[in-house]
User: Which sequence fits this backbone?
């Protein structure tokens, strides 16, 4: 009887483990779980771009080494995703308390045509003052996006245009290595613990 | 102590937020209509709302009209392979027995060609056209640019 129960328990355990592995496999093969075709962002030390922040200072990715960093791509003409993400980031920074002060929080504009440093400064004044906005030539923004394996595209809309862009928030550890991504539609409760992992 | 608490409570409830107003049309209950403040009038603004369909028949939101914008449209934020896009939505399904939310990261109204910049604390009327319920007008509250939604004391928020 005991043996039979052990066998049943053993079978149950095996089934559970297989189900777990299948679950894991499903998760890993889901395309949206990966930033871009499974290619991870390169470390800051291997990125090469120069952009201008919303205060007019030149910024290079190596400037971020030594502090954990979160970066997202957006633009100020964006009505839904970008204000929501900036609002989320502002809340996360508040939730992190004093720890947030040793974190770089960066928005890179994918619409440098309209987003000049002054436009970014005006826009970002509505959110947490620790968020830094970057813009520059289209070529430099493209170089930045390629290092992050991020994508963006200009889309005509009415007489105007909008931008499609990678919407997740990239997390990097203080050594400049990629430490994870907060997907746009991910449960927001997981965001702060994820950020804490790159802070430690 | 008690009168202080009571007066504080009255102060909080005396002026209910516009976004917490409820409009009904047939089986539909519409509330939480809000937008975000804009910088200038050249950027598109956003429109969010919640629609509860208590009826037995499905309905659909077909369009929005407002004096606040020359070209209001329904859009849907979609994230494909991590890339966000905002295709035009011809209609938003409002299934029977469910609450449909035009909310951040999902369906939303995109208010292009703003008449004036939207300022926090302002409100403007928006007419929603439904397939079955017809046209319904609701006041939209302009919240701050970093708002994530209105805070209402009634259930559903």
Assistant:
């Amino acid at each position: 009887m005991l043996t039979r129960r052990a066998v049943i328990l053993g079978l149950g355990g095996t089934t559970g483990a297989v189900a777990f592995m299948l679950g894991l496999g499903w998760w890993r093969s889901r395309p949206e779980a990966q930033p871009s075709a499974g290619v991870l962002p390169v470390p800051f030390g291997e990125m090469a771009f120069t952009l201008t922040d919303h205060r007019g200072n030149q910024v290079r990715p190596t400037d971020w080494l030594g502090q954990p960093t979160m970066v997202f791509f957006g633009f100020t003409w964006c009505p839904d995703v970008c204000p929501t993400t900036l609002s989320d980031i502002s809340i996360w920074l508040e939730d992190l308390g004093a720890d947030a002060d040793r974190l770089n929080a960066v928005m890179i504009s994918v619409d440098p045509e309209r987003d000049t440093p002054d436009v970014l400064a005006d826009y970002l004044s509505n959110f947490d003052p620790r968020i830094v906005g970057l813009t520059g030539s289209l070529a430099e923004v493209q170089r930045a996006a390629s290092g992050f394996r991020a994508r963006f595209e200009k889309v005509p809309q009415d007489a105007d245009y909008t931008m499609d862009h990678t919407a997740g928030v990239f997390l990097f550890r203080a050594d400049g290595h990629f430490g994870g991504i907060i997907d746009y539609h991910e449960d927001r409760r997981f965001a702060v613990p994820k950020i804490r992992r790159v802070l430690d | 102590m008690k009168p202080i608490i009571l007066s504080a409570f009255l102060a909080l409830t005396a002026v209910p937020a516009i976004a917490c107003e409820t409009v009904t049309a047939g089986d539909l209950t519409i509330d939480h209509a809000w937008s975000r403040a804009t910088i200038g009038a050249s950027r598109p603004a956003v429109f969010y709302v919640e629609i509860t369909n208590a009826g037995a028949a499905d309905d659909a939101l077909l369009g929005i009209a407002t004096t606040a914008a020359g070209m209001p449209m329904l859009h849907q934020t979609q994230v494909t392979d991590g890339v966000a896009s905002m295709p035009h939505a011809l209609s938003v399904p409002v299934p029977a027995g469910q609450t449909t939310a035009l909310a951040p990261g999902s369906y939303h109204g995109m208010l292009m060609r703003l008449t004036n910049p939207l300022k926090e604390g302002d409100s403007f009327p928006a007419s929603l056209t439904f397939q079955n319920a017809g046209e319904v007008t609701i006041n939209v509250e302009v919240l701050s640019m970093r708002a994530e939604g209105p805070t209402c004391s009634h259930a559903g928020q």
About this structure: Chain A has two domains: 2-31, 39-199. The interface with chain B takes residues 31-32, 34-37, 76-77, 79-81, 83-84, 86-88, 90-91, 122-123, 126-127, 151-153, 155, 158, 160, 162, 164-168, 181, 183-185 of chain A (CB under 8 Å). Residues 5-37 of chain A have pLDDT under 50 and may be disordered.
